[in-house]
Amino acid sequence: MITARAAATFEPVGRSVASARTFVRDTLQGWGLTDIVDDAVVLTSELVTNAVVHSGTTADVVCVRADSGVRIEVTDRYPERELPLQTTSRPIGNPDREGGRGLLLCAALASRWGVEYTSTHKQVWFHLDFPDRPAGTRSAGPALPTDALPVTDARVRVAVTQVDRTGLITAWNDDAQELFGYAAEQVIGKPLTDLAAWPHTPGTGTGVAEALQLSRWEGSYGIRGADGRVVPVYASHLRVRDADGDPSTVCLLVRERERAVLQSPQRGPGTDAAEGAERGPAGDAFEVSIGSPAPDDLDGLLQRTVERARDMLDGDAAYLLLATDDETELEVRASTGLTSARQRFARVPVEAGTGRYGSARMPAVHEDLSIVPGAVPLLANTGLRSVVTVPLKVEGRLTGSLGVAAEAPGRYSNEEALRLQFAADRIALAVERARLTELERLRRNSLSFLVEASDLLAGTLDRDQTLALMAQMTVPTLANWCAVYTVADPASDPELSYVLHEDEERIDGLKALLTRIDPPEQVRTGGARLWTAPAQTAHAASLRTSLRGLSLGDAARPSSGPSASLATASAVGGETVVLPLVARNRVIGMLTLGKSTDGHFRQENLELAEDLSRRAALALDNARLYSERTAISQSLQRSLLPPELPDVSGVEVEVIYRAAGEGNEVGGDFYDLFPIRDGAYGFAIGDVCGTGPEAAAVTGLARHALRLLAREGFGGPAVLERLNAAILDEGARSRFLTLLYGELWPQEDGSAVLKVVCAGHPLPLRLRQDGSVEPAAEPQPLLGVMEDLELYEQTVTLDPGDVLLCVTDGVTERREGSRMLGDDGLVDVLTTCTGLTAGAVASRVLRAVERFAAEPPSDDMAILAMRVPEPQDS
User: Fold this and answer.
1) By CB neighbour count within 10 A (0-12 exposed, 13-18 middle, 19+ buried), where does 576 fall?
2) What tens digit of pLDDT does each residue of 616-659 get?
3) Per DSSP, what are the bridge partners of residue 17?
4) Contact status, residue 717 vs residue 723, Cβ threshold 8 Å
5) H/E element holding 758?
6) SS3 helix, strand, coil % of the chain, rounded to 5?
7) pTM of structure
8) Phi, psi angles (nearest 5°) of residue 653
9) CA distance 701 to 723
10) Short-list 657, 686, 678, CA closest to 757
């Protein structure tokens, strides 16, 4: 039973033999019959040669696939040719002779063959059976000479790693450690994505996380080694499950240059093309071979189109351009035979001149490009002289342009233009459908990219981290390198703030280059604009360095000079664009994106970069505002605390202060220790209700009022009563204040006398030498609530070895769930501090508070410890 059929007709010219070979090879590969392709091509070549060269007629070639094998028929228009019979007693003669050799090959290679005559034509056919593959053999290759074998190191290392369903590494063998520098204990339990340098562009490939979920995957990427360098690898992933049904992925990795160790044999494309040809118009070899890629595989479809167009017109090169949405420009999307890969994504205008020869909307034939230089800018300096171009149109709208060129002049005429236009009309709709599918996929992935970028940028308010995120999101997704310039204020010049290249070894050279040239001009208007200075400067520097090296001679040439300059020139050798960073109607910087080695940006990527730049600009400005606010808050907080503590003779004093939060709010806790007069010191520790400017105002008022009133000779109760009146005078800005204030009097006998007033504050605790702990004061009303306060002070004598501990409620109210450290918990901690210095006591209390809960403290903390040393301590 016939399952597929393809046919083509070839003119009686010499190049038709090569075209017939290509037709048969592509057809059988499209059917997945790679095992019999070579025999079929050899037989077809000989039979078509007999038809078009020796018989001098056109040749019809038909490929028929059946259940048992493939039948290929070659028909010519010369039925009188003699058929050599092997059954005659007459010798066959020399097999190398021109006539009859095709039939001898059929007898030697084909399973069955035959010849059929009619009054108008002769048909030679042969049948090739499908091969029986030996059990256990999936693929095999012929014996090759030693110099044709793939090159590897003396010892091939295959890294074997296994990741679980969440992407965490669970196994890491010795070869993996040797290749990448990580010991197993360094990477097990970490995500493989942290090590993978994945060359992923939105909408054009699979990400590493998606690849690990596939049942099987094979391809190239990079692993970032322990030394920070990316090791290019070729990988084979296999998804497996254990006896309990838990899935994991086994990854085999070798160096990229040793990919032959893991790479699966290439298989031909699927059968859609030929089977579709059977249903469509017969006899169109171009359409049959074009249909092999999947309908939504735009790049594969375009590449096969240009290759078949070149073969159909026996050209030396071909190219295909797609029109932009506004039909004003054409973008190079596929080419073959052109000497430089830089043409990809390059743009040319649709209307390059007057008349039909200057417009891509009409077919055009250029017999000799040397007569009209620049007529086809894409082919400048390529050596190609004759070219035929035709438009691709869908419903009258220009969607692209297809061109075929040759090195010889005068190769093409209107006849070739008609043939190429017929082929372009056949493929235009499929190209447009695949292009729209790609655009939809790109837009969908671009939206996902922008959502992820917005989340990342919104997750930080640190300026340096925001700059790093901006660069890392664009490299290598949108560009090969990136530089961010920032502008402090409208009167300032742009400053180079961050540089990133996909090759880390080139970052220093790129940074040095950008430092030497003037920054791009500040332009507020949106959109990407070209910037040629980096490429021009790098090329000029590399040329000067190379000439200097040649003049010095090889012996005197500096080892790092020319190579470094050439590497930098290559790193910035492509297109460079600048996008303004505009936030709140002000230019705050510029995002510079560049391509390496003559690369060009796709319009879709530029539009994506423009959207990203708007989001990044707002995030950068928010980080700037946050940094300024944090700096102001921290400066204000420092001004509310004493710059340094005085040295108190005969008493050890230690203070620990910890502000909670991110540092952008002024805390309400404060402390102070200051001399009042000879031999007397004032100390205070307090907590203002709330945070922010209002709390800061009360904190500043309290600290400065305490010093002023104490030095005026007022006692503790009088000082706090006057401070209470001053707080109430603040009106709506007033805040509650808990305050422990006291006066310290070191004594000649080694003890210390303290007079304290505890106004609503956690009570001070006294630790004796025997380990007992007791409150050193009684609670009294807090400040800022009542006008008439009747406060009193209490006297405490600290004997040698005794400790007085004063804290804010951030210590006692430390929580984890429903648990709280509380006063009793603080007493338990202090009980263990017998014999410790004041510094050690304060440190132990802080450590106990931090260890009480896993979460960081949510309230400010101040700890003031005073200890009278024992005689042997001093």
Assistant:
1) buried
2) 888 888 888 887 777 777 777 677 777 788 889 889 999 998 87
3) none
4) no
5) strand 752-759
6) 35, 25, 40
7) 0.46
8) -130, 130
9) 8
10) 686
